[in-house]
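Late entry, S-adenosylmethionine complex.
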Amino acid sequence: MVKRNRRISWKRLLGESGPSFLGWLEENYIRLRLYNTLAEVLKYYLEQNLKPNLSSPCLSRDFVDMLLQIHDKKKCADEKTFHTALAIQAYTYAHLLERYRRIWDVLLILLKAKVLPMSDDGIDVLDIGTGPAPALYAVSDFYSALRDFATKKGYAFLDTPSPRLHCIESSPYMWQFFHIFSELSGRPGPFQPTFEKFEGVDFAESRAYEKWARIETEIREQDTSEEYARWFVNQMFSPGYLYNLVIFSYFLTTEDNVVGREKELLSVFSSLRPGGVVVIVGGTSDEFPTIHNFVHELAIGANLLKVSGVQEVVPCNYFEPYNSYGKRLKELYDTIWNWMREQDKDIDQYAISLQAPVLAKFWDLSKRLTISPRFSLRVYRKGP
Ligand SMILES: C[S@@+](CC[C@H](N)C(=O)[O-])C[C@H]1O[C@@H](n2cnc3c(N)ncnc32)[C@H](O)[C@@H]1O
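Prediction complete; structure with ligand written out below:
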């Protein structure tokens, strides 16, 4: 495809091509096929890494206990919860597919609102509290589908380089998971965290540090003055630690998670490129309005605009019927649960004895996934 200089705004281009992209995705079951591929690789991963650990009733029960923990909001907000391999396996089993599906919804909502981040040079994406990387997997699959569409339908300007994936994640067990999983599925990453802890991130400082390191290198390598090296670096390099898309998915989930992190949140908000977008995805329970209000004040204070007109509570069938997705997820739940049944014929009774309705979707083979996977969404944008 021959590319000319783009003389059309992203907003107009997305407005013109968006509906046709949506139609193309649906007609060709692109999204469902990518979801099913993710499910296959996840099943394979769990077969290799979890199944051997379920070799006794006692270990199966540990897994069930862990499933309960990773459904507890307070435990999920506590980073210590994610410091065992079993916790990561339980989390990926329970959440990876559905979170991946939700971020696809988010990206389609951004597209529909014509604020999907785009750049001729490819976008930089930062996922904070990455977990097993459902958001980054969704982003890379989504933009790859957009490029396929662009090539097939002749929208040359939409055929941009792949997104560069950055992440902040504190659990070494999560890093290990997404490194192996990215390799297993032949994905472009993530392979390692960009930063390990959200606390203390200061992107302006990181940019200044990186710039000074480049200047020092040029002074040394070119044997030149600081003044010239500074000019050279300004001409030749664009600064790092700037983002087109920032994702908080189930990371800002309790007040404790948000209050006290003002400095870091402001640093994120002021590290968006023009047209850059921050999305905040979470549950719909009582605590969220307080969290959203707190983050809203900070975002507005950092000169971001709240994108109006986006669906703030997204139901499970907002773009496509949920059935096929729910069915595939249930298949995965049943397969893994059956591995446990092979080891422990009383595992269902054990799960029932814990009296936790949230476990029924795993042990009850006849249960359709009628959970209402709604989620809350807030979008902020840096005006051009
Ligand atoms: C509830 S999970 C959310 C994972 C993923 N974003 C999702 O949507 O499923 C929260 C993740 O944040 C990580 N985390 C918790 N506290 C953190 C911190 N202070 N800095 C970086 N990562 C943290 C945890 O290890 C965990 O992987």
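The chain has one domain: 10-381. Will revisit in the morning.
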